[in-house]
Amino acid sequence: MRMKAVYFLVVLAMAVAVALPVSAGDSFEDSTAPWGIVTEGGAPGTWQPSRALLYDNGPFMTHSGTGVGGADESVLQTTSLGMNTLGMGAQLSAGNRIADQFVIPAGDEWQIDGITFFAYQSFAPSDPATLSGVNLQIWDGSPDSGASVVWGDTSTNIMASAAWTNVYRVSEESTGTSADRAIQAAVCTVGTTLTAGTYWLDWQFDGSASYSGPWAPPITIIGNDTTGDALQYTGSWAAVTDSGTATPQGFPFIVDGTLVGQPTPTPPPGGDGAEPIPTLSVTGIALLSLLLIGVAVVVIRRRS
Ligand SMILES: [Ca+2]
Fold this sequence. Notes:
The protein is of the alpha+beta class and 304 residues long. The protein has one domain. It is built from three helices and 13 strands, in the order H-E-E-E-H-E-E-E-E-E-E-E-E-E-E-H. The chain has helices at 2-19, 78-81, 282-303; strands at 28-30, 53-56, 72-76, 85-89, 97-119, 131-139, 149-152, 159-171, 182-207, 215-216, 231-233, 237-239, 253-259. Strands 2, 3, 5, 6, 7, 8, 9, 11, 12 and 13 form a ten-stranded mixed sheet that branches. Strand 11 and strand 12 form a beta hairpin. Calcium ion (CA) binds at residues 100-101, 228-230, 250.
């Protein structure tokens, strides 16, 4: 009887040890980070992308509908490319930040209304979202090379809302089975007008203290182990590289607003962004008529 009790306690201790998340440090979360048991699915109120798009820095969703409950996935290419970084630390609690840039073309002026950033907290439910804040600085050059901040600061929370993107961050080994890392969109209010130039953003997330992170998933593209040229601040700035392939990575963000001095584009005929039915131009009709006449001539000559 006593042996049975001891055996039970040993098994219980082992189960607890396996279940407890192991800290991977604050600067990044790699594919050896713990994966849990799927307990949920479905798609509660999810983020809908804005249509006032000025700029999109790159995708993070790689597979549509392959995830738990039919969700989409952002698959880290662990086995096919040897990649290893699920997400980089961008958490307020650790003082970590992420920086990446966009270019406003010569002659253009952007009125930036908002910017959306993306992060997950490991083992957090997909709903409600656990992100609680974002602070942002916009620089007129790289934050690592003596540029100046032209908008924002490192203390004001500019996050207006957060919601699940319907995408889970997974590895190739956990695709279809893990709902541990629900990528959330943090929609932020900006409100500034910028002229042509290269601008760097550096940002940081706040979130629930009950879960690790927030972690920023890199831009993810099937077949590519290099996705950008972002920086991470962990006391000093350094290039973000995948810990498996040592290749540079970028980060997804979406800039919303309007092009100053340009008329607002009207949707094409056919309604809600639908593609219009193609029609023949006058030239097209003339060419088609000539072709038909040619065919008729050949047929008539053969018959006679
Ligand atoms: Ca970049």
